[in-house]
Design goal:
Pnp Oxidase, Chain A; 33 strands; 17-stranded antiparallel sheet; 3 domains; about 475 residues; 2 helices; globular; mainly beta
Length: about 475
């Protein structure tokens, strides 16, 4: 089989880890240098039995890794969307922070500090921008900033889509009666003021002419003998409980209530008490399915998330090197390499010209390398197939490296801001006759300088650390913007 006969299809998943069946007409991505690596843990039994011969081994945790390079392009009809959009999102670059059409990709947020992505797949009514979504189980609530409809025009039946929400706040979730068969008339209220996820238990400890209840928080000591008043009664941290009646409950009836800072997977998103939709995953970073053809052999990798490192070198085609981690699909299958596909990409952009700035300076550099440098963690789970429940991004360490020519400090001073740990804006714009791709990091600290040389010219290898704006909650330390120029 020929290495040249490779083809990649990529599609965002509505259900994390579930193959949405990418197509050659909509999900083709032009890539090179593809490397597929099944990550299989082989266990060599440690038992000792008086023999030097090894015992038969067994396989443990399994997951997949795949990497490839992609030449930076924009869509040939929509100049604000690159063909690698799905992969950028799966690498923690959120495409919907400020609007649905500005082409900006910011670092994604796990707590709604700027914008969180939620996928849905069923419901009873259309959702609108500015509506408030409340998770019945988690109690997390937020305002809808944008709606991306995948099918149809509203919520209902088999409608699927994505909503983007901002600034998640914690309110008590739905009171779930987990024990007892008495009347279930408990409702929760207030706004949770704590700083971590919490769970309340409410239990009827006396069934009489006027009932009483006890409660605890996160398994702590019980507060007992609280008279049911029928009005809102405060528990702790701003959370209240209201019973619909003061009597008629059954001894030991118990309710569980959670207050979470994110939505729970597969819970109801409640627009109102009568309008609910089923969410199929809190995907602040969505996962993707990748179909990777090695000629007539096909790997189907689901639940993939990862990293992209951009390399923009002078006079060269600008590239992004993707490294993705996903669920293990089992062995590959025989499948005929597609003979037709639709490439939505415009001509690749070349890194030359444009405008580069570090503060008020425009240093002469050979290239820029940058990325979010996410920490990728396979979620280990005893009950999961192959011991891997999914893939998580648990942290990031954004970084930009440049290599300016050495100049007099009077014209380009790198050492003073390094020693002062001061903050300087950095930006560069790739451009051709029709589009720009702009990189911007409004506040960078110099994290390191290493003297070197390039073809007989002295240079500095400079590491920049983008940091969040001091006037915001974060997720604004760096962004990419794809935009048309004509």
């Amino acid at each position: 089989m020929l290495t040249e006969n490779q083809l990649i299809l990529v599609k965002i998943e509505q259900f994390e880890g579930t193959d949405p069946t990418p197509t050659t007409s909509a999900n083709f991505l032009a890539v090179s240098n593809v490397a597929i690596r099944p990550n299989l843990t082989y266990h060599d039994p440690a038992a000792q039995d008086g023999s030097l011969s090894p015992r038969p081994g067994v396989l443990g945790q399994k997951y997949m890794e795949i990497s490839f390079d992609h030449e930076i392009q924009v869509d040939n009809t929509n100049k604000t969307i690159p063909p690698c959009d799905a992969l950028l999102q799966a690498c923690g670059w959120d495409d919907n922070e400020e609007s649905t059409t500005d082409g900006k990709y910011y670092p994604a947020s796990p707590r709604g500090l700027k914008c969180t992505r939620l996928a849905f797949d069923a419901g009873a009514a259309e959702i609108a921008v500015a509506a408030t979504l409340v998770g019945e189980d988690s109690g997390a609530s937020a305002t809808v900033r944008a709606v991306t409809q995948q099918t149809n025009t509203g919520w209902g039946g088999t409608t699927t889509g994505v909503v983007y929400v901002d600034n998640i706040t914690r309110t008590p979730g739905l009171a779930d009666q987990t024990t007892g068969t008495g009347q279930s008339d408990l409702t929760m209220g207030g706004t949770y003021t704590g700083t971590a996820n919490t769970t309340f238990l409410i239990n009827i400890d006396l069934a009489a002419a006027t009932d009483t209840f006890k409660w605890n928080q996160d398994g702590g000591s019980w507060t007992e003998g609280v008279t049911v008043t029928g009005a809102a009664q405060t528990l702790a941290d701003g959370v209240t409980v209201t019973f619909g009646a003061t009597t008629g409950h059954t001894l030991s009836d118990e309710w569980t209530v959670t207050c979470n800072d994110t939505y729970e997977n597969n819970e109801n998103l409640q627009v109102s008490s009568a309008t609910k939709a089923v969410m199929n995953g809190t995907q602040w970073v969505p996962s993707v399915t990748i179909w990777a053809y090695q000629e007539d052999i096909l790997w189907k990798i689901t639940g993939a998330k990862g990293n992209v490192v951009f390399n923009w070198n002078s006079g060269q085609v600008a590239t992004g090197s993707f490294s993705m981690t996903g669920l293990y699909p089992g062995k590959p299958t025989d499948s005929t390499l597609p003979t037709t596909w639709t490439d939505s990409g415009d001509a690749p952009l070349v890194a030359m010209g444009g405008t580069l700035a570090f503060g008020s300076d425009s240093p002469c550099i050979e290239g820029i390398t940058f990325g979010l440098h996410n920490t990728i963690t396979p979620r280990v789970c005893l009950g999961a197939t192959h011991a891997t429940e999914g893939i998580s991004i648990t942290n990031r360490a954004p970084e930009i490296t440049i290599n300016p020519e050495v100049a007099l400090a009077a014209s380009e001073d790198w050492w003073t801001p390094l020693e002062a740990v001061s903050q300087t804006a950095f930006s560069y714009g790739l451009t051709n006759s029709t589009v720009d791709v702009d990189l911007s990091a409004p506040k960078c600290e110099i994290a390191g300088i290493t003297p070197g040389n390039r073809n007989g010219t002295d240079i500095y290898d400079v590491t920049l650390r983008p940091i969040r704006s001091s006037g915001s909650a974060g997720d604004d330390e760096i962004y990419l913007q794809f935009k048309a120029t004509v």
